[in-house]
Amino acid sequence: MSMVPESQRLLEAMVGAYPIYVRSRLPAIPEGIDDVLAQGAAWLRTTLTDLLALPFAEQRRGPLEVFQEAMSFPTEALREAGVEQSRRDPVSEAALPGDVYGLAPVSSRELGEEIWMIHLTWGATKATALTS
C-alpha cells in the first residue's frame, strides 16, 4: 500500500532528524555511536514505513511513539558504556519508563519547528480522512 504525501514527508523528516536529535540529547558519546545511530535510523525508517503505509484507521500508534521507541538504540549504547541514568520526574518515568536517560521527545516540536509543522499537517490529514 502506498503512503499519502503527508505521511511520506513526515517519515523522511523524522528519519532525517533522528541522528541530529539523538546527538543533541546524549549525556555522553559512547563508542560506536555512529553505528548505533545508523541502526536506529534504519529501524525507524522500516517501522515508520510499515505504520504509515497502513490506512489511517488501522494505525494503532503514532509516529512520535515510534520515534520515542527508537531511543532504545542509544539508550542501550549508553547503558553498555556504563553511563549513569538520568534523574527523571515521576510523570516522565510513568509516561516513558524505558527512557532512563531522558532522550525521548515528548513532542514533535522538540525535533524542530519544521518537523512539528509537518507532523501537524499529517495529523490534520489523518483527522480529515477519519471523519470523511
Q: What do you see in this structure?
A:
The chain has 132 residues and is an all-alpha fold. Helix content is 62%, strand content 0%. It has one domain. α1 packs antiparallel against α6. The two termini are 20 Å apart. 27% of the residues are buried. The model has no long low-confidence stretch (mean pLDDT 95).
- What's the gyration radius in Å? 15 Å
- Taking the alpha carbons of the first and last residues, their distance comes to 20 Å
Total beta strand runs? 0
| SS content category | mainly alpha
The mean pLDDT is 95
- By DSSP (H or I, 4+ residues per run), the number of helices equals 6
Strand content: under 5%
Task: Pick out the low-confidence regions.
Answer: none
Can you tell me the number of structural domains? Answer: 1
Main beta sheet: none
Order of helices and strands: HHHHHH
Helicity level, as a percent range?
55-70%
Globally, the shape reads globular
Secondary-structure blueprint:
Blueprint: H1 5-25, H2 33-52, H3 63-69, H4 72-80, H5 90-95, H6 113-131
Helix pairs in contact: 1-2, 1-6, 2-4
Task: Jot down its keywords.
mainly alpha; 132 residues; 62% helix; globular; single chain
Sum this structure up briefly:
With 132 residues, the chain is mostly helical.
